[in-house]
Amino acid sequence: MTIPDLSSGQFQLVSNMLSLSIAAMFGSFLFFVMSRQQLSAKYRPAMVMSSLVVGIAGYHYWRIYASWEHAYTLTSTGTYVASGSPFNDAYRYVDWLLTVPLLVAELVAVLALPKVTRNSIMPRLIAASAAMVALGYPGEVSGEAGVRVGWAVASTIPFIYILYVLWGELSKAAAKNDAGTQVLLRNTKLLLLGTWGFYPIAYAMPLLGIGGAGALVALQVGYTIADITAKCGYGFMICAIARSKMAAEGVTVDEDASVLA
Ligand SMILES: *C/C=C(C)/C=C/C=C(C)/C=C/C1=C(C)CCCC1(C)C
C-alpha cells in the first residue's frame, strides 16, 4: 500500500477516530460483560459473543493505532510523511475474519432459533463470512482499480448471501414476537443493512478519484465509523432484544443472586 503525505489535520483526524474506536470498544466490552448478568440463561451466550467481538476489535484497534503512528513522521513544515515503516491494514481483515462470524452467531443466538435451523444455517453463514473477508483482502491491498473492483465483486456474492439469510430469519422471528420486540427486530434489520452496507462504500473510496490522501483518510474514517456502529451499536441492540423478549416471556433475573451466576 502506498502512503501518501498528509496534512496535520488529516493525520489527526484518523488518529482521533482510531482512538475513539478503542474507547468505544473497551467501554462496550465492560457494558456487555456486566449486562450478561441481567439476562436469563437463554440469552447469555449472545452477550458473551458481543463481549468477544468488541474485545477482539478493541485489541486490533490498539494495534492499528500503533501502526498508524509508526507509519508517519512529522516534518518541520507540519506535513506528515511516510516514515518507512509500513501501515498494516491486515489487522482489520484479521479482525473481520474473527468478528463477522461472531456477529452473525450473536444474532442467531438472541433469536433463539430451533436447533435444526441453527445447525443448518450457522455453518453456511460462517463459510460465507470467511469468503467475504478473504475475497475482499487482495483487492484492498491492491493499488490497481481493476483489481480492486474484481475482488469486490467476488466478495459481494457471499455478502449478499449473508444479508439475505439474516434478513429472512429476522423477518420470520418478528412474526413470532410481541409488538415491542418486533420494532427492535425491524430496527436491527435496518442497522445491519446500513452498517454492513457502509463497508463496500468505504472500500470504494480509492476508486473515486479523490486523491491518495483524501481516499486514505475517507477509507480509515469510514471503516472506523462502520466498526463502531456494527459492533458496539449492534451489541446494544442485541441486548435490548434479549431484554424485550425476557419481558414478553415474563422472565426476570434476581439482581443480587445473578452477580455470582
Ligand atoms: C465488524 C466488522 C464487520 C461487520 C465487517 C464487515 C465487512 C463487510 C460487510 C465487508 C464487505 C466488503 C464487500 C461487500 C466488498 C468489498 C470488500 C469488503 C470486504 C469491504
How would you explain this protein's 3D organization?
There is one protein chain. With 261 residues, the protein is mainly α. The protein has one domain (8-260): Rhodopsin 7-helix transmembrane proteins (Rhopdopsin 7-helix transmembrane proteins). Helix content is 78%, strand content 2%. It has a two-stranded antiparallel sheet with strand order 1-2. Helix 3 runs parallel beside helix 5. The longest helix is centred in the C-terminal third of the chain and has 38 residues, at 212-249. The mean pLDDT is 93. Bound molecules: retinal. Retinal binds at residues 96, 99-100, 103, 132-133, 136, 152, 155-156, 159, 196, 199-200, 203, 227, 230-231. Residues 96, 99-100, 103, 132-133, 136, 152, 155-156, 159, 196, 199-200, 203, 227, 230-231 line the site of retinal.
List keywords for this structure.
single chain, 9 helices, globular, Rhopdopsin 7-helix transmembrane proteins, mainly alpha, 261 residues, binds retinal
What is the ordering of alpha helices and beta strands? Answer: HHEEHHHHHHH
CATH class: Mainly Alpha
Q: How many structural domains does the protein architecture include?
A: 1
- Say which molecules are bound, naming each kind only once: retinal
The helix content is over 70%
Shape: globular
- Within the largest sheet, what's the order of strands? 1-2
Distance between the termini: 48 Å
* Low-confidence segments: none
CATH homologous superfamily label: Rhodopsin 7-helix transmembrane proteins
Q: What's the pLDDT, averaged over the residues?
A: 93
**Which structural class do the helices and strands define?**
mainly alpha
The counted number of beta strands is 2
| Rg from Cα | 20 Å
Major sheet summary line: 2 strands, antiparallel
The CATH topology is given as: Rhopdopsin 7-helix transmembrane proteins
Question: What percent strand?
Answer: under 5%
Instruction: Provide a count of the helices.
Output: 9
Secondary-structure arrangement, i.e. CATH architecture: Up-down Bundle
